Amino acid sequence: MAPIAKKSAKGKGPKTTKKFIINASQPASDKIFDVSAFEKFLNEKIKIEGRTGNLGETIKISQAGEGKIEIIAHNDLSGRYLKYLTKKFLKKMQLRDWLRVVSTSKGVYELKFFNVVNDAEEEDDE
């Protein structure tokens, strides 16, 4: 008698809902980061099942307050992928040299300025 193969419960589990927040309030208040352009970029670039522009009802992207973008995903969307897309947008807008993406807590990413120390001022003092 052949052994009976067990059926796996792959894809039959409960649907997961994840909430991510990208906080760009600091650079947005300095008028160097356009939050609405970033929201449009995410709508165009997020891939679902290998296709861009295929968000539908599975992912909702909205602005939540001053300089914050909220992403609610009803599928497997990783925070690392959002961080990657944020870095890609910063590189496209030539802001990657001044801003970095930092995870402040689970599901929350914040855009912060690099701590720049002016070496020119120190040389003038000598």
Characterization of this structure:
This protein is α+β, with helices and mostly antiparallel strands and 126 residues long. 29% of the residues lie in helices and 27% in strands. It has helices spanning 25-29, 35-45, 79-92, 119-125; strands at 18-23, 47-48, 51-52, 59-63, 68-73, 99-105, 108-113. The protein has a five-stranded mixed beta sheet. Strands 2-3 form a two-stranded antiparallel ribbon. α2 (35-45) packs across α3. The longest helix has 14 residues, at 79-92. It is elongated and about 80 Å long.
Descriptive keywords:
alpha+beta; five-stranded mixed sheet; structural constituent of ribosome; 4 helices
Topology, pairings included?
Elements: E1 18-23, H1 25-29, H2 35-45, E2 47-48, E3 51-52, E4 59-63, E5 68-73, H3 79-92, E6 99-105, E7 108-113, H4 119-125
Parallel strand pairs: 1-7
Antiparallel strand pairs: 1-5, 2-3, 4-5, 6-7
Helix pairs in contact: 2-3
Portion in strands = 25-35%
Helix content: 25-40%
Rg over CA atoms, rounded to whole Å, is: 20 Å
Report the sheet with the most strands, covering strand number, pairing sense and barrel closure: 5 strands, mixed
Low-confidence parts: none
Cα shape: elongated
N-to-C CA distance? 89 Å
Protein name: Ribosomal protein L22e
GO molecular function: RNA binding; structural constituent of ribosome
Organism: Podospora australis
Keywords: Ribonucleoprotein, Ribosomal protein
